[in-house]
Structure formats: structure tokens, C-alpha cells
Amino acid sequence: MVIVDLPRALDHSIRDTRRDMVAPARPHFVLFGSSIVQLSFSHGGWGSHLSDVYSRKADILLRGYYGWNSRRALQVLNQVFPKDAATQPSLVIVYFGGNDSMGPHSSGLGPHVPLDEYVENMRKILIHIQGLSERTRIIVLSCPPVNEEIVRGNTSTIFSELVRTNELCQSYSEACIKLCKELDIKVVDLFTALQKRDDWMNVCFTDGIHLAAEGSKIVVQEILRVLKEADWEPCLHWKSMPTEFSEDSPYDLVAADGKTTLNPSEWTFYREIQWD
Predict the structure, then answer these.
(1) What is the band of 24 on the pLDDT scale with cuts at 50, 70, 90?
(2) Are 162 and 105 in contact (CB under 8 A)?
(3) Residue 212: closest CA among 65, 58, 75, 43
(4) What residues are labeled active site?
(5) Is 192 exposed, middle or buried (0-12, 13-18, 19+ CB in 10 A)?
(6) b/e string for 200-213 if b means 16 or more Cβ within 10 A?
(7) Residue 108 binned pLDDT confidence (cut-offs 50, 70, 90)
(8) Is residue 14 predicted with pLDDT exceeding 80?
(9) Residue 152: its pLDDT value, please?
């Protein structure tokens, strides 16, 4: 009599089906961070823009965790980015720092992480991701500014006092940028980038902290600029990446001459913003 381990057989069957369902494999871009990452597909968010820009070129994978700091990121790092995974990401965009930079609570609870520890946590996170593969690239987003007046006015009965100041945000942003330069990792200075708009405090946030559509547009512009300028092989800028199934076909829309077809694979006219 042959004994079949049915749960294991089903598990292998499901894995095989999943693998076949998404073939051929596209490059994976992973967004890893706290709420600015988790919410990046809301409110015209930067993640949704990247997903549109890289449609048929790369799969954008969201690994965002609302309220998290660098300590919690370290706790799950090996689970989110296992080094023995069959496929490793081509790009990881990392953001932690906003919650770390909050003022400490008198109870000792809360997301605050002292600056020196934050830097060392980020160092461990980035070195781990660097070690995933020789072709895994990283872009770090530094801590953005906040609208302090709105943050102070966001009184709620469910939260204790939220201490978010631009003095703290700037110190964590600058420390993050310094670390990235030390590790030779690309970094976007969000603290400076958002403030280039004169009206940044009024248009860049939904609640004084999290990004509104206008703030997200700045993030996308900065990420695409880094990808365009980076001396990476292969290039991960969207205009340099192949489009999946982009060959001409007699099943494409028929042109006005009635004799040829129009290949829509590279069309971008439908986008609100024509990204560079």
C-alpha cells in the first residue's frame, strides 16, 4: 500500500500552480517601510504611480507596516527578505525613520528609537538587503518633514501626545543620508525634496505626516531621477527596461490606413503625468 502525504502533496501542487500562474517572471521591486510605504497605494500614492509606470516591466511588491520603527523591521527582516529565496528582488526601496524620530514617551512605550540605535538598525537592514544578491539594488528614503501645526492640532482620545518636530525629522534624515553615503547606497533626501515647494506644508500631507497626492508626486520624481542617473547594470529606469509581450501583432488595433496595426505596448498618453 502506498501512503501519500496529502497535505504536503497539495502544498507542492499549490506552489507549482502559483509559479505557473505568474510566469514569465518579471523583476521584483519591493517597497519596505512603515506607514508612508503601507499607504503608498492610497491618496494617489507614490507606490501606485510606480506600479503604473512599471506595468509590464516589473512587479511592485508592497511590504509596508503602519506605525513600525527600525526595531520592528529588524525583527522580521529574515522573513521579509530570506536569503535562501529562489528569486531575489531587483530593487528594494526602504523607508524607516519617521516613527523612530518621534519624541520618547514617559512610559518607555511607543515607537521612539534613539538616533544612534536607529543608525545601527538601518545599517543592519541595508547590509542584509545588500547581501541578498549581487544584482539587488537599494534606494533609501530619508525622513520627510511634517506640518507641526497640523500634527499638534490632531488631538485624539485614542492616542497619547504625538511628539513630531522638524528638528527631530531633520536629525534622523541627515543621519540616514550619512549612513547611505558610507555604505555607497542611493538615497533620496525627502526632508529637502518636499520643502522645495513653497506651499509644501499645505499640499504635501493628508494629516501633517502622511503623504497626499502632491507629496507622493515628489517622491516618484526623486525615485525615477535616481534610477535614471544610477550607473547600474542592468538599468532599472522604466524607459530602459523591456516591456513584456511587446511584439507587433495582427490582433492589435487597426490603423487609419486600414492595412496595418498599432502596437499599444509603449503608450503612455493616458497618464496624468508624463514621467521622465
Answers:
(1) low
(2) no
(3) 43
(4) 34, 207, 210
(5) middle
(6) bbeebbeebbbbbb
(7) confident
(8) no
(9) 83
Strand 186-188 relative to strand 261-262: parallel, antiparallel, unpaired?
A: unpaired
Residue matched to cell numbers 512603515: 34
Distance CA 247, CA 263 (A): 8
Average per-residue pLDDT for the chain: 91
